Amino acid sequence: MSRIGKRPIPITKDVEVKVNGDMMTVKGPKGILERRIHDKISVEINDDNVLLSVRDSHRETRSLHGLFGALVLNMVTGVTKGFEKTLEIVGVGYRAELNGRTAIFSLGYSNPVHFELPDGIDANVDKSKIVLTGIDKELLGRTAAKIRSLRKPEPYKGKGVKYADENIRRKAGKAGAK
What we know:
Blueprint: H1 3-6, E1 9-10, E2 16-20, E3 23-28, E4 31-36, E5 41-45, E6 49-54, H2 59-80, E7 83-90, E8 95-99, E9 102-106, E10 113-116, E11 121-125, E12 129-134, H3 137-148, E13 160-163
Antiparallel strand pairs: 1-6, 2-3, 3-4, 5-6, 7-12, 7-13, 8-9, 9-10, 11-12
């Protein structure tokens, strides 16, 4: 049994959790999230807790127990508080701007890169700082990774798009070899 999966997930008064067949719906002040629950996982909703249990004790089922415990906790946290991811753009002439739902990046390529934000993700763009917010943690992380992949940070000068809390391991270059 998974320690994360065994842990009860607290539900506040403003969050409503429903299970209809294999679909779980979590509704809160920031929005609604839905997820399909694996058929080997059973969900029980008490007054103020969600409890997950497994139907058998196979290795795959035990790993799904912890996975769905974390996913349901992220859903409840997302509809109450939301999530935020910050990206930084490092480099001379590298910048971003927001035009409606499209982020336009100048990242040293011959043409600017247009990135369409998915539904459910909002962005606040300063010249070299991008703050992504949303209620779906999985979609937020995937969007931040796609933006980072437009120009990954390089190890010599550190130029590129990086997470705000990311440390770039720097290399010395040709002059440092002597």
